[in-house]
Design brief:
It is a single chain. The chain is an alpha+beta fold and 140 residues long. The protein is built from four helices and five strands; from the N terminus they run ααβαββαββ. The protein has a single domain, classed as 2-Layer Sandwich (Alpha-Beta Plaits), CATH 3.30.70. It is globular, with a radius of gyration of 18 Å. It comes from Gossypium laxum. This is DUF4283 domain-containing protein. Pfam families: DUF4283.
């Protein structure tokens, strides 16, 4: 009888992204982050400030807000964070640069995923803000 003393762990895609102390090169991230048919996969971290809603309601609201060109996947992670897995660079850039995104009168924070992201932090360390100054000429 042969016993494998070091069983290979089949980590989920989510576990690989969120694993503390991720080591290796960015090439490692591309290998498990890429689509099976070679599609580009782009990740964004989402958090709804001030309120918590269910997964299905959240997915439906952002689908209606963003109106993506290609389908996207939403992954619920800890502390009210979500990962949005987008397949289109235009969708990715529009979600990051347009806004502010508001769901049920609460701001939706959106930032690109990085390997330094920690879902254990209760709030994002960097938040993009839109500021409107009335009366400011358009060329400024």
């Amino acid at each position: 009888m042969v016993v494998d003393l070091e069983p290979s762990l089949n980590m989920s895609w989510k576990d690989k992204l969120l694993r503390a102390g991720l080591t290796g090169s960015d090439k490692d991230l591309i290998e498990f982050g890429g689509g099976s048919d070679g599609d580009l996969i782009l990740l964004e971290v989402l958090k709804l400030l001030g309120r918590s809603i269910g997964y299905v309601a959240f997915h439906n609201r952002i689908s209606n807000l963003w109106k993506p060109l290609k389908p996207f996947q939403l992954m619920d992670i800890v502390n009210g964070y979500y990962l949005a897995k987008l397949q289109n660079i235009e969708d990715y850039e529009r979600v990051l640069t347009q806004g502010p995104w508001i769901i049920y009168d609460q701001y939706l924070t959106v930032q690109p995923w990085t390997k330094d992201f920690s879902p254990l932090q209760p709030y994002l360390s960097v938040v993009m803000a839109w500021i409107r100054l009335s009366g400011l000429p358009g060329f400024m």
